[in-house]
Write a structure and sequence with these properties.
Elements: E1 10-11, H1 13-16, E2 27-29, E3 33-36, E4 54-56, E5 59-66, E6 69-73, E7 76-80, E8 84-88, E9 93-99, E10 104-110, E11 126-129, H2 132-149, H3 156-180, H4 189-204, H5 211-217, H6 222-233, H7 237-255, H8 260-266, H9 273-276
Parallel strand pairs: 1-4
Antiparallel strand pairs: 2-3, 3-10, 4-9, 5-8, 5-10, 6-7, 6-9, 8-11
Helix pairs in contact: 2-3, 4-6, 5-6
InterPro entries: HTH_AraC (IPR018060)
Domain HTH araC/xylS-type: 195-269
Keywords: DNA-binding
């Protein structure tokens, strides 16, 4: 019987940086909440090291204000630039790839936003680029929340509800954009199938490594699924399965106390040490 792997430790913003160092004018952190008006103030080597995947512990609500960064989020590559909006639910797989020297972002880290679970379920993210006017409107939310944190009389409930209002405004804006473009951008069946496969892989990929497992859940043949995923993503289903396992292995090496042999056994997969440093998932 395959040994069950230990769950990867979820990582919060407090785990990623020394929050005491940044409790200044443009930042505030407490046990359940954090805000930073200029993420660019944090040196890159104190934030996220490239090619070190982890799963987020809390909700992340961000707006890029300048520069460009590239992340792998739930196995998909995302390019973030000015006015890119991002909302990540707890449990999101995150790995930084690169960022420009002038990268800056407004950033909320918050627990207790269960109202968003039906809007952005685990395994999904919100990701789009807003226009300048809308980006400035979102900026006002961040400014308001920071002012609220600076007043000791403000209850956390008020801060949480304002953060929820910001997230709802961002979601509504994306829905409006999608509504205007529904006649121009039609999600075809192949794209939809590829997206459904990626979602399943993110949920099940650490222990389920057979193509048929995914094709059966999606009610298609293994060959059909393989052809569609190759057409849309440029990589085979087997490549994606291997990629998911290597990502999980890296997370376990970074964020658990398991040894390499235990990880390989737990993942029920033949992982060669060279795979962890392969081109598909670079080492720092």
């Amino acid at each position: 019987m395959t040994k069950k792997i230990k769950e990867v430790q979820l990582i919060s913003i407090s785990d990623l940086l020394d929050i005491e160092k940044y409790k200044e004018n443009g930042a505030y952190f407490c046990e359940r909440f954090g805000i930073m008006m200029n993420l660019g103030d944090v040196p890159e080597n104190e934030w996220m090291n490239p090619y070190q995947p982890y799963r987020s512990k809390e909700w992340r609500i961000a707006r890029i204000t300048s520069g460009v960064s590239k992340y792998i989020i739930n196995l998909q590559e995302h390019v973030l630039q000015k006015n890119t909006i991002h909302i990540l639910p707890p449990g999101t797989l995150v790995m930084k790839v690169s960022q420009s020297d002038d990268l800056s972002a407004e950033f909320l880290s918050i627990y207790d936003l269960d109202e968003l679970n039906s809007r952005i379920p685990q395994g999904h993210t919100l990701y789009y680029t807003a226009d300048e006017e809308t980006g400035l409107r979102f900026h006002e939310y961040y400014k308001l929340i920071l002012r609220m944190t600076q007043d000791s009389r403000t209850p956390f409930t008020s801060i949480r509800l304002t953060a929820f209002a910001l997230a709802e405004d961002m979601i509504s804006q994306q829905e409006e954009i999608q509504g205007k473009n529904k006649d121009k951008i039609k999600l075809n069946r192949h794209q939809l199938l590829n997206d459904q496969f990626m979602e399943l892989l993110n949920q099940q990929g650490t222990l389920k490594h057979e193509i048929r497992f995914y094709s059966d859940l999606l009610f298609v043949t293994p060959n059909y699924l393989s052809n569609v995923v190759k057409e849309i993503s440029g990589q085979t289903v087997s490549w994606w399965i291997n990629y998911m396992v290597v990502m999980e292995a890296k997370m376990l090496l970074l964020h658990s106390n398991l040894q390499i042999g235990e990880i390989a056994t737990g993942l029920a997969f033949q992982i060669f040490l060279s795979s962890v440093g392969s081109s598909s998932v670079k080492q720092e």
